[in-house]
Amino acid sequence: MSRIGRLPIVIPAGVTVSVDGQDVAVKGPKGELALSVAKPIEVKVEDGQVLVSRPDDERESRSLHGLTRTLINNNIIGVTEGYTKGLEVVGTGYRVAQKGAAVEFALGFSHPVLVEPPAGITLTVEGNNKVTVSGISKQAVGEAAANIRKIRKPEPYKGKGVRYAGEVVRRKAGKGW
């Protein structure tokens, strides 16, 4: 039995979880998220808890059991607390500026790069080298942060580029002359 999958998810106050066949909808103070559960997995709401179960011990059922429970738990955390991911811009002349809801990056290209936030995501700038990506969906926040980092990944010689907050960039020695 999956150690994670069999754990019940406690529904906090102010959150409603509704199950309609294979669709699970989570409503909370920050918003609403929906999830479509894969076929063999069953989800039930009983006395303030969400229970995820599998009908058999087939390989696919076992692999989806813990995943489904984690996805539902992530949705519940998202509608109550939300998710944030920090980004840092490192490099001489590299900076960030807020332009309404969008963020403008100066990353050593011949032009500034304007990043519009996707639906449900907010971008905030602190100082001139820190960006915070926040939203209620863990997947959307991670993807938006990854897309921003992809504009100019940290390079291994000087460490210049956009990196996650707290990310350690492995440095190379260079030629040494």
Low-confidence stretches: none
The proportion of residues in beta strands is 35-45%
Separation of termini? Answer: 59 Å
Main pleated sheet: 4 strands, antiparallel
Give me the side-by-side strand order of the main sheet.
11-12-7-13
Order of helices and strands: EEEEEEHEEEEEEHE
Radius of gyration: 21 Å
Decide which structural class fits the backbone. Answer: alpha+beta
Give the overall silhouette.
Answer: elongated
* Number of helices in the DSSP assignment: 2
Approximate helicity band: 10-25%
Overall mean pLDDT stands at 94
Work out the number of β strands. Answer: 13
Question: If you had to describe this structure to a student in words, what would you say it looks like?
Answer:
The termini are far apart. The protein contains two helices and 13 strands. The strands form four sheets. Strands 11-12-7-13 form a four-stranded antiparallel beta sheet, with helices on one face. The mean pLDDT is 94. The chain is α+β, with helices and mostly antiparallel strands.
List keywords for this structure.
177 residues; alpha+beta; 4-stranded antiparallel beta sheet; 2 helices
Secondary structure: elements and pairs:
Layout: E1 9-10, E2 16-20, E3 23-28, E4 31-36, E5 42-46, E6 49-53, H1 59-80, E7 83-90, E8 95-99, E9 102-106, E10 113-115, E11 121-126, E12 130-135, H2 138-151, E13 161-164
Antiparallel strand pairs: 1-6, 2-3, 3-4, 5-6, 7-12, 7-13, 8-9, 9-10, 11-12
Concise overview:
By secondary structure, this protein is of the alpha+beta class. 20% of the residues lie in helices and 37% in strands. The chain has 2 helices and 13 strands, in the order ββββββαββββββαβ.
